[in-house]
C-alpha cells in the first residue's frame, strides 16, 4: 500500500473536474459527500481547485458549490469551501483570477463572503490573499471585475500581494489599457473618437447582472448579484447590498455591440478598447481616492509613489497625473535616483514630460540639480535607453529625436544652466555631454543617410535619362515639317506632360540626394536639414516613377491604338505595379519623416487640467 493510492482511486473525480463533467460524478458525491472537499492530487488539491484552474469547467464549479452548501458543513472548513486555500495558499478565487477564468471568478465572488467582525480565519479580501486577488484580477485584464471588487471591499487597494506590489502598481504596468498606450492607426483613431462610451459603461453593477443573464442562457440559472449566502449579518454595509437590476437600455446596448461584433469585429474591438480605457481610468481614480481617504502620509506615499515610478517607465501619464492631482507632494518622489520629470527625461517618456505644461512652475523642475552636478539638460544630453531609442526608424531619425529632446529641455532651462559644468572627472557642459554620448549614433546616422541617398540617386539618375530620351523619341515619329504625328491626340498630350513631370521630379530627386551625400553631417543637420532633403527626394522620386509609368502607358496606347487591346490592357495595368511597390516599401519611412519633421511636436500640453 502506498500513501498516494488515493490519487488513482480518485482519478475519475479529477477527470470530471478537468472536463466539466458533473454528471459522471454526481451520484458518487451523493453517496459520499466528503469526496467533494477531499484532496485528490499529489499537490493536495480539492475538486474545486481543479475545476477553477480550467477555463471550461464553469458548470462543474457551480454544481459543486451548490452541492457543498446543500449538504451542509461537516466541519469548519467545509462551511466556506471557496475561502479555503490549498497547501500553497491559493484559494479558488485566486486560482480563477490567476488562470484568467472570468466567468468562474465572477461566480465565486458572488458566493464567497467576507469574514464577519467577530469571526476567526483569513479573509480572502484582505492581507496577502486580498492583495493577490486584486493584482491577479488586474493582470488578467478583468478591469471591470477589479473595479467591482474594490467597490465592495475598498481596503483591498491598500494590500500588497506576495511580490509586495499593490493594485495600482500592477495597473501601472499595463500601458495598453490607457489612451497613451494605444497603437491605433489613423482610421482606428477616427472610429475611436466617434464611438461614445459612458464613463461608467462596462463597470457598473448592471454589467454584472447582464453577465449573469447571459450565463443563464447557458443553463447556469444564476440569480442576480446578491449578498453572499450564509451571512449571519442582516444589516449589511452598502457595498454588500443587492445590486440594482440593469435598465432595459443597458441590455439593448449590450445586444447592439454583440451584433456589431459579428458584423464588424474591428469596430467592436475598438469599442472594447475604449471601454477598457475608461474602466482603467476609473480604476486609477478610485484607488487614489481610497488611498487619500486613509489620511495617512506613509500609506499614500508608499502606495502611490512606487506606482508613479512604474508608470514613468511605461509612459502612462494618466496614472501619474491622477496621483499628483490626488497628492501634489508626489512630484518630488524619487524615481530611480531622479525626480519625476528628470526621470521622464532620462527615460525619454514624452507623455510624462508633457505634464510640465500643466504646471505653474515647470521651470523649477527643469533646473533641479542632482547630487553629481547634472541638471536637466545634462540628462537630456545622455543617450536614450535602447528600447526608447528604437521607437523611430533608422539612426538618422533617432538622432533627430534626440536633438528634439535636447532642444525642448533647453527651452525651459535657466540660461545659467546651459553652460553649467557637471561633477564628472572631466567636467562637461550639457552640449559636451550630448556630443560625447551621441558620437556613435551620429556615425550610424551619417552612414544610414549616405546609403539611402546613394541607392535612390541611382534610380533617380536612370529616370532622368529615360525621361530626357523620351522627349526626343516620340511615339509614332514626326511629320516632314517636324510636327509629331499624334499631336492632335489627347493621349499624346498626356504622354508629353507625364514625361515632363518625370524629368523635372527625377532631376529634383537627384539634386536632393546629392545634397545629402555632400552634407557636412553636423549634429544640428539631423534636426531639420537632412530630413527635409530626404523627404523632398523621396517624394519627387515617387512622382517620377509614377509619371514615367503614365508616360509608358500613354505611348503604348498610342502605338497600338485599340488594335490589340487584349495585350495593351494588361500591360497598362501592370505599369501600376512598380508605383504600388515603391509606395508599400517606402511610404512608411516617408510618413515617419514627414510626421517627425513637419508634424505636430511630441511636446505639447495634453489637456488643460492643472496638476501643480
TrEMBL record:
Assigned GO CC terms: membrane
Sequence ranges assigned to domain PGG in this UniProt record: 447-558
Entry keyword set: Membrane, Transmembrane, Transmembrane helix
Protein name: PGG domain-containing protein
Ranges annotated as spanning the membrane: 324-345, 452-472, 492-517, 538-560, 566-591
Keyword Transmembrane: yes
Source organism, top-level taxon: Eukaryota
Gene3D superfamilies linked to this entry: Ankyrin repeat-containing domain
Amino acid at each position: 500500500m502506498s500513501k498516494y493510492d488515493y490519487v488513482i482511486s480518485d482519478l475519475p473525480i479529477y477527470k470530471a473536474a478537468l472536463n466539466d463533467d458533473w454528471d459522471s460524478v454526481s451520484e458518487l458525491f451523493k453517496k459520499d459527500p466528503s469526496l467533494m472537499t477531499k484532496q485528490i492530487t499529489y499537490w493536495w488539491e480539492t475538486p474545486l481547485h481543479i475545476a477553477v484552474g480550467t477555463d471550461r469547467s464553469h458548470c462543474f464549479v457551480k454544481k459543486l458549490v451548490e452541492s457543498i452548501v446543500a449538504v451542509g458543513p461537516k466541519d469548519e472548513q467545509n462551511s466556506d469551501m471557496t475561502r479555503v486555500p490549498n497547501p500553497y495558499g491559493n484559494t479558488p478565487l485566486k486560482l480563477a483570477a490567476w488562470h484568467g477564468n472570468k466567468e468562474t471568478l465572477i461566480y465565486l465572488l458572488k458566493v464567497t463572503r467576507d469574514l464577519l467582525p467577530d469571526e476567526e480565519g483569513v479573509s480572502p479580501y484582505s492581507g496577502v490573499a486580498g492583495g493577490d486577488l486584486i493584482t491577479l484580477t488586474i493582470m488578467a485584464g478583468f478591469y471591470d471585475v477589479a473595479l467591482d471588487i474594490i467597490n465592495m471591499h475598498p481596503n483591498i487597494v491598500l494590500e500588497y500581494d506576495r511580490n509586495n506590489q499593490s493594485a495600482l502598481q500592477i495597473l501601472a504596468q499595463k500601458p495598453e489599457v490607457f489612451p497613451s498606450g494605444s497603437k491605433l492607426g489613423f482610421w482606428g483613431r477616427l472610429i475611436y473618437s466617434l464611438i461614445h462610451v459612458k464613463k461608467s459603461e462596462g463597470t457598473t453593477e448592471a454589467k454584472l447582472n447582464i453577465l449573469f443573464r447571459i450565463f443563464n442562457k447557458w443553463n447556469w440559472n444564476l440569480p442576480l448579484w446578491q449578498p453572499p449566502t450564509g451571512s449571519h449579518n442582516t444589516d449589511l454595509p452598502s457595498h454588500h447590498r443587492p445590486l440594482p437590476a440593469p435598465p432595459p437600455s443597458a441590455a439593448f446596448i449590450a445586444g447592439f455591440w454583440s451584433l456589431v461584433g459579428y458584423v464588424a469585429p474591428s469596430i467592436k474591438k475598438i469599442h472594447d478598447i475604449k471601454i477598457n480605457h475608461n474602466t482603467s481610468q476609473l480604476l486609477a481614480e478610485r484607488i487614489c481616492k481610497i488611498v487619500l481617504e486613509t489620511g495617512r502620509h506613509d500609506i499614500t506615499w508608499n502606495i502611490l509613489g512606487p506606482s508613479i515610478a512604474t508608470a514613468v517607465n511605461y509612459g502612462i501619464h494618466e496614472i501619474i497625473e491622477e496621483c499628483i492631482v490626488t497628492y501634489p507632494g508626489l512630484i518630488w518622489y524619487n524615481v530611480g535616483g531622479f525626480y519625476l520629470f528628470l526621470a521622464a527625461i532620462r527615460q525619454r517618456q514624452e507623455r510624462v514630460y508633457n505634464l510640465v505644461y500643466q504646471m505653474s512652475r515647470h521651470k523649477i523642475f527643469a533646473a533641479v540639480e542632482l547630487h553629481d552636478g547634472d541638471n536637466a539638460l545634462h540628462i537630456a544630453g545622455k543617450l536614450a535607453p535602447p528600447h526608447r531609442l528604437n521607437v523611430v526608424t533608422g539612426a538618422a531619425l533617432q538622432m533627430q529625436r534626440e536633438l528634439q529632446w535636447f532642444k525642448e529641455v533647453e527651452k525651459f532651462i535657466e540660461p545659467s544652466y546651459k553652460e553649467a559644468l557637471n561633477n564628472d572627472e572631466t567636467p562637461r557642459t550639457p552640449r559636451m555631454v550630448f556630443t560625447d554620448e551621441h558620437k556613435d549614433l551620429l556615425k550610424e546616422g551619417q552612414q544610414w543617410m549616405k546609403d539611402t541617398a546613394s541607392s535612390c540617386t541611382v534610380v533617380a539618375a536612370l529616370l532622368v535619362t529615360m525621361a530626357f530620351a523620351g522627349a526626343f523619341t516620340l511615339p509614332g515619329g514626326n511629320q516632314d515639317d517636324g510636327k509629331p504625328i499624334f499631336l492632335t491626340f489627347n493621349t499624346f498630350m498626356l504622354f508629353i506632360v507625364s514625361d515632363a513631370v518625370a524629368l523635372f521630379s527625377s532631376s529634383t530627386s537627384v539634386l536632393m540626394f546629392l545634397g545629402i551625400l555632400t552634407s557636412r553631417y553636423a549634429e544640428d543637420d539631423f534636426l531639420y536639414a537632412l530630413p527635409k532633403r530626404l523627404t523632398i527626394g523621396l517624394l519627387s522620386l515617387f512622382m517620377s516613377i509614377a509619371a514615367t509609368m503614365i508616360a509608358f502607358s500613354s505611348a503604348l496606347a498610342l502605338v497600338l491604338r485599340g488594335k490589340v487591346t487584349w495585350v495593351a490592357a494588361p500591360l497598362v495595368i501592370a505599369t501600376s505595379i512598380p508605383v504600388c511597390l515603391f509606395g508599400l516599401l517606402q511610404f512608411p519611412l516617408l510618413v515617419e519623416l514627414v510626421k517627425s519633421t513637419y508634424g505636430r511636436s511630441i511636446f505639447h500640453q495634453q489637456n488643460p487640467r492643472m496638476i501643480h
